[in-house]
Amino acid sequence: MEGYRIAKQDNRIYSMGLTVVDGGIHVCVAAQGERCDLLLYHSGEETEYVRLHFSEEAKRGDVWNMTVLGDDFSGLEYCFEIDGKVFADPYGRQFTGREIWGDLSAADRPMRTPVVIEDFDWDGDKPLKIPYEEMILYRAHVRGFTKHSTSRTKDKGTFRAMIEKIPYLKELGVTSLELLPVNEFPELMMPEHVDGSPYAVDKPTGKLNYWGYTPGYYFAPKASYSSGNGRHPVSEFKNLVKTFHQAGMEVIIELYFTGKENPAFVLDAVRFWAEEFHVDGIHLVGFAPNDLIGRDPYLSGTKLFSTSWMGVPGGHEKHLAEYNDGFLVDMRRALKGDEDEMNHLIFRSRRNPADFGVINYMANTNGFTLMDMVSYDTKHNEANGEGNQDGNSYNYSWNCGVEGHTRRKKIVELRRKQIRNAALMLFLSQGTPLLLAGDEFGNSKDGNNNSYCQDNEVSWLNWNLLKTNRDIYEFTKAVIAFRKSHPVFHMAGEPKIMDYLSCGRPDVSYHGVKAWRPEFENFRRQIGIMYCGEYGKKPDGTADDSFFVAYNMHWEPHEFDLPNLPKKQKWYIVFNTDDKEFNGMYQEKPGDGEDVEKKGGMPVMETRQFEVPPRTIVVFVGK
């Protein structure tokens, strides 16, 4: 104990965990028991250097307090012991002993927290607060995004490698990055114990929890996601956030809770990531006290995602967002031509409530990728070792005629067409579109829709597909740019289906094969949606163009009558997902001359009728 002494306890209330105070540190931990000790170690040493006992006088309820005075705490790590049981600080901001991903030898190794964590210069950084309607959200796994040998990054599978991909994300059009859990979690899966069983053992199952949806340490970035020897996860994650902000992109993280955590602890964790790491938002996964978090005034400027915010009032800023599979289910069913889906299509494409945002996606982590959605009718999770009984059986997918990989030209072309259709359905809808990492270049998991334990090429993005499926990437990038350029597709509020500006047309209107006559019978698989440009103001204050989107999800062609435009305007085709020659898209200004259409220019409509081919979406612009 030489060089360190316990200060006389005062009556101040300290934050949980470790706090730096004048002349030393203060530690505060909640633990039930009779005797609690603070254990200090030199870094890398197995034997404790100093053991300090918490006094009963410094205990309030189950919370133990101690102020330790000393001149130098560098190179020291700490943990606690309660009645002979050693445990790590639940509020620890960094942990040693878990620097190597999937290290079996670390399963029984105690986790300790460095007393001194390096400072970080934020250089004036702050959250970007991009409005929900302006966001293009991209969801990725830190390890899987760059771990593949084709990623062309230096420190593969780390925070630093994510930074190396910023130019790629910027070119794609991403504004906001969502990361699967980046807090410290045990990736080595242990068996679940049954009380009273004499056969229970504390040995790893051999599986890895790749995603991170498991109880963990909620105040520390994951050490094995940092580069080199994993010693600087805090500064590396902060640098990731800062660098993304400098590039104009937000960073949103996921935090998984089981519902067994103390609500005050959960609130502390959410506040901590917003304050300490400058993250722009937090996606609450599992079971969290949403009412408490959603009403917290400290978080009123932080984006918060959850399955539902029912009963939680929105604040003066629109910071809450609903994040669930509703859009995915309805739009996938419409895409594959299910009966009675046109009402759902127009509802999902328009939905954008005033009090909270809506996150829309066609594919997400716990389900098929976009490519697998058009390649498989059923899940293929045999590699998970659970007899294909795990994962969601309701995928609302269609394999286009062949299960899995095929070289049949017609099947391949139909699948690509359906992917183009899915991209338009997603990015032409109000709300916030989310793109699953790799979907922009046809990433496949070979039909595995629950790759939670697949730390291999099933989950790692193969960047060679960016060349193989360049057409998918170029179409996705073009649709994102198109959405950004036209505010009618990302309004701040939900369209009212009314002409409240008295400009002669509603903001949004619905049409059948005959203009102004929508048809919603259960057997209908086609609908037209018109967007009036007067309701979409561009940054310079000018009105947007008007658009007509013809959806034909039927397996038969349908002829649409196009609505009339103001005098001297004509309809031009911007996207036609059936056109393989130009990858379903046309240039607004391809060049001069009479052969504009041959150069990929927008075809002009000389009549008001257009036959939309089977399973095709056509987007018209009025000019």
From TrEMBL:
Coiled coil: none
Species of provenance: Hungatella hathewayi
Name assigned to this protein: Glycogen operon protein GlgX homolog
InterPro entries from the UniProt entry: A-amylase/branching_C, GH, GH13_cat_dom, Glyco_hydro_b, Ig-like_fold, Ig_E-set
Annotated GO MF terms: catalytic activity; cation binding
Record-annotated membrane-spanning stretches: none
Domain Glycosyl hydrolase family 13 catalytic: 139-483
GO biological process per UniProt: carbohydrate metabolic process
Family per record: Belongs to the glycosyl hydrolase 13 family.
Signal peptide: none
